TrEMBL record:
PANTHER family: GLYOXALASE DOMAIN-CONTAINING PROTEIN 5, GLYOXALASE FAMILY PROTEIN. It comes from the Bacteria. Residues 7-141 form the VOC domain. This is VOC domain-containing protein. Pfam families: Glyoxalase (PF00903). InterPro entries: Glyas_Bleomycin-R_OHBP_Dase, Glyas_Fos-R_dOase_dom, GlyoxalaseI/FosfomycinResist, VOC_core.
Length: 143
């Protein structure tokens, strides 16, 4: 491991229905909802889901992309060009996620082996899409 103190804070996903996306991530993926009730009440601009203590996924309404003015070209970022987001889990949580996604009717890739990532080669991995087409990889490493 490096001694870098930088961490991944959040990823913003463009979604067509933030509440439906939050339900998917809570129910099918098993992530904790953040500010979902506040968003539903009009008190927050978007809901989020918690990946871990340090990282969340923000579920931003795709229609708001045109308002992204903080950087030239930011509005064009909607749908560009993230290939996938990888979630690393312990083996038992990996199995539980795959089961939960299947129970929700989410199409899953076959299980791959020994794909390289931040912690070396992962024992197993698979891919799935959320309802808005964002691609996720789930993996676990032998500990």
């Amino acid at each position: 491991m490096t001694k870098n103190s930088m961490r991944l804070d959040h990823i913003v996903l463009w979604v067509t229905d933030p509440l439906a996306a939050a339900r998917f991530y809570q129910g099918a993926v098993g992530l904790e909802p953040v500010r979902v009730a506040e968003f539903a009440e009009g008190k927050a601009a978007f809901p989020s889901v918690r990946v871990n203590d340090e990282t969340i996924l923000d579920l931003a309404l795709l229609a708001f992309a045109e308002r992204m003015k903080m950087l030239p070209g930011a509005a064009a970022s909607a749908g560009h060009p993230v290939n996938h987001i990888c979630l690393s889990l312990p083996a038992d949580a990996f199995d539980a996620l795959r089961t939960r996604l299947a129970e929700h009717g989410v199409p899953l890739s076959d299980i791959g082996h020994n794909s390289f990532g931040a912690r070396g080669k992962a024992s197993r991995s698979f891919y799935f899409r959320d309802p808005d087409g964002n691609v996720f990889e789930a993996r676990h490493y032998d500990e």
